[in-house]
Amino acid sequence: MISTYSIVACDLEAREWGxxxxxxxxxxxxAVPAAEPEVGAVATQAWANLAYRPDGLSLLREGxxxxxxxxxxxxxxxxxxxxxxxVVDAHGRAATYTGSECHDWAGGRTGPxxxxxxxILVSAATVDALADTFEGSADRPLAERLLxxxxxxxxxxxxxxxxxxxxLLVVRKDGGYGGTSDVAADLRVDDHSQPIEELARxxxxxxxxxxxxxxxxxxxxxxxxxxxxxxxxxxxxFAGELSDALTAWAGTENLEExxxxxxxxxxxxxxxxxxx
Length: 276
Hints:
The protein is an alpha+beta fold. The chain has helices spanning 52-61, 66-75, 125-135, 142-155, 195-210, 223-235, 242-252, 267-275; strands spanning 4-11, 16-23, 33-36, 40-46, 83-89, 94-98, 107-111, 114-118, 165-171, 183-189, 219-220, 264-265. Helix 3 (125-135) packs antiparallel against helix 4. The model has no long low-confidence stretch (mean pLDDT 96).
């Protein structure tokens, strides 16, 4: 029984879809979430039917709305009364379902671009916190909003059995490493006494290494900064042409996604180099 609370959501402006989930269940990220860019996102929980993930995405890919996907999945499932499901489609329409046999407290809420649900919760306040936090954070990136939702839900009572694992999945077309993947973030804490805090810590590392600084915030490399970069890189064993040395150092630090030659420098890269 995946006693869980989750939020399935999208940011249509950023063209991102994602899920955040926490549970008193080992490795919840391996069971609950599924998402595909420009298609939608699905969370299956309670006595989870893992086939809801590929089948739900297949229906979304065919153009069915979130409501229609839920109806089709649970309508064909004899175990429907033990299931819980959240869906957001390509247009931001959302649906949630809670079977009558899910353990109290169990239920869900939906709004434009999001579906929040949970089972074996302390109270409805957990789902309300997911919903209210998402609605109140529209100015933030989707991943950060989803993480904030988990933290607020836990503070509101969370899963009445406790906590064990948490996960964050965000997808965007070509939004993954090197532009060769659609997975912008797939982060999991499988077994931890404070899984939400640990997930937030891992996300900060992920953002450091793979986040994007707006072009207008990059720094022009003038003569003085170029000299500093050469000196610092040489001190770390990376001499030679500045662009080559910077790229080589960034590769060893897993910062290669933040380097584009040496005419301009990402301030995050500069901060990390100075810290070394």
